[in-house]
């Protein structure tokens, strides 16, 4: 029985070291200040759960 071993690709030590160096570097060029938003948020909870479920059922039946 003869077995032939095939490699998946040559190991490139220089490429490995380049990638290792690149991934270990910290990118400090980004703007680290947080954006502050001013304003108000309103929630409209006027409809009951039953009304919302009825509306959902109507939407489901229309899409069929």
UniProtKB/TrEMBL annotation:
InterPro entries: DUF5786. This is DUF5786 domain-containing protein. Residues 8-60 form the DUF5786 domain. Residues 1-29 are annotated as: Disordered. Residues 16-29 have a biased composition (Basic and acidic residues).
């Amino acid at each position: 029985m003869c077995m032939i071993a095939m490699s998946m690709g040559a190991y490139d030590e220089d490429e490995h070291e380049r990638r290792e160096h690149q991934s270990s570097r910290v990118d400090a060029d980004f703007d680290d200040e947080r954006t502050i938003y001013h304003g108000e948020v309103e929630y409209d909870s006027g409809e009951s759960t039953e009304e919302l479920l009825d509306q959902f059922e109507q939407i489901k039946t229309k899409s069929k």
